[in-house]
Amino acid sequence: MSYIKAAELLPKDLVELIQNYIDGEYIYIPKKEKNKKAWGANTTTKADLADRNMSIYEKYSNGHSVKELADEFYLSQKSIQRIILNIKKKYC
């Protein structure tokens, strides 16, 4: 996220009005609902995590222990258990 100087973008009277509420601090103005994108829409992270999780499930199905998978994927055993359970619910 980049910052834009309000004084360069907004009319002076609007900047002064905003200063009555927040003076010299950062403020986040959210996107309009129609402009929002779903999480992972701009990157491959969502697909990468789905692939990783399926790999975890396949290895578990082939006999790897939860501890082995936690060590291999640098996750907690609880996270591995959650991933396995979610995939079982979704596909089985």
UniProtKB/TrEMBL annotation:
Residues 7-90 form the Mor transcription activator domain. SUPFAM superfamilies: Homeodomain-like. InterPro entries: c-mor_Regulatory_Protein, Homeodomain-like_sf, Mor_transcription_activator, YraL-like. NCBIfam families: CD3324_fam. PANTHER family: MU-LIKE PROPHAGE FLUMU PROTEIN C (PTHR37812:SF1). This is Mor transcription activator domain-containing protein. It comes from Vallitalea guaymasensis.
